[in-house]
Amino acid sequence: MSSSLLQVGQIRSLAPEDMPGVAAIFNEAVAAGEATIDPQPRSVEQVTAWLTGDLPRYEVYVYDVGDGIDAWGAITRYHEREAYSPTTELAVYVRRSARHAGIGRRLLELLLGRSRELDFHSAVLIIFPEPRYVIESAKKLGFRELGQLHSVAPVEGGWRDIVLLQTHLRREEG
Amino acid sequence: MIRPAREADAADIARIYNQAIEDKLFATCDVVPVTVESRIQWLDSHQDPYPAFVLEDDSRRVIGWSALNKFSVRPSYPGIAELSVYVERDHRQKLAGGRLFMHTLKAAKRLNFRSLVSLTLERNRPSIRGLIAVGFRRAACLAEVAKLHGEWVNVVWLQKELDGDWGEGLNAFMGRLGDEPLGSCGAAEGAD
Question: pLDDT (tens digit, 9 = 90+) per residue, B92-105?
Fold first, then answer.
């Protein structure tokens, strides 16, 4: 699963055999206090249920580097209530050793395009205020920063703020 | 009086909630009436630290209910709870909502929540006004995030941190409602 900035990977749809890699990348982020969704690591089964329980309405993509994956991105259910179904929450996780190479941004761009094609009205991101480059990168793709909840996300040693971003994929007139 | 909700309250809780749906108050994102059976299950899941309360009038008729819920967008967050308050149609302009607010905020403090969150439809202006009056802060507004009765709706996220001077804000709010100050709220609380 080694990778370097020179290695060229490709984005493709999730395959069942990717799940251990997907879970490992997620749990690396959890351990580093970088995941807003859950302070606890998730098993391969839990990650599979989370990301594939709602297929085909939602989609998952991975960044394949030949001997494994270095990143993944998902179009997920934003809220359990049916009235919220026009909105999706996007999630992107990049292995630490593969960051700062534009992979996350490429995945997010793809997820936005697919969300539009899947007829979602808007997409939401819920992330931490730091590192700031993540927010800046999302803004370049059209997200607006809406605001924060203060001191709510449990991480080791304390509580973090979360930032809410949204972009509209098919805004109607008016 | 306000007391913990029990299974026998399921029909009243469903009736009051369904009034909010029927009246298109934009007080909930549910559009289909809930059943009594579903409220029995709901009550079953509303034990500490996520309690539900009912408000009775002098004749012990349930005229409102409130609850602390897991934060619906991030159920894994133990430090915050989402607030629900619903009041019987004919009592909406009275003190019922304020009393339930106050009682539930006190419970949240006792249960050691760090803050309360409310995801309120922007069109539901009375609720937003009430939440801001008791010290909630507008954290974010999601535009056209849901579709209700065929219309796009905006949802405001409000937050109230429970440390610090939360009591003062409540006292000020209840003062504006013309009710007794915070100290009167508790087990011996009287009916409206």
Answer: 877 888 899 999 99
Question: Do residues B116 and A150 make contact, with C-beta atoms less than 8 angstroms apart?
Answer: no
Alpha-carbon A149 to chain mean position: 19
**Domain A10-124: top CATH class:** alpha beta
Domain B2-180 coded CATH 3.90.1150.10? no
Cross-chain Cβ contact B76/A172 below 8 Å? no
Contact A166 B148 (CB under 8 A): no
Please list every residue in chain B whose beta carbon sits closer than 8 Å to the beta carbon of residue A36. 74
State how far the Cα of A18 lies from the Cα of A171, in Å rounded to an integer.
Answer: 35
Task: For chain B, give every domain's residue range.
Answer: 2-180
Within 158-177 of B, beta carbons closer than 8 Å to A belong to 159, 161
How far A5 CA lies from chain B's nearest CA (Å)?
Answer: 34
Q: What is the pTM of this model?
A: 0.87
Residue contact B79–A80, C-beta within 8 A: no
With a cut of 80, say whether residue A173 has pLDDT above it: no
pLDDT tens track for A44-100 = 999 999 999 887 789 999 999 999 999 999 999 999 999 999 999 999 999 999 999
Six token digits for residue B58 = 């002098």
Spatial separation of the C-alpha atoms in residues A94 and A55, rounded to whole Å: 22
Determine which of A38, A47, A50, A84 to mutate to test the interface with B (most B C-beta atoms within 10 Å).
A84
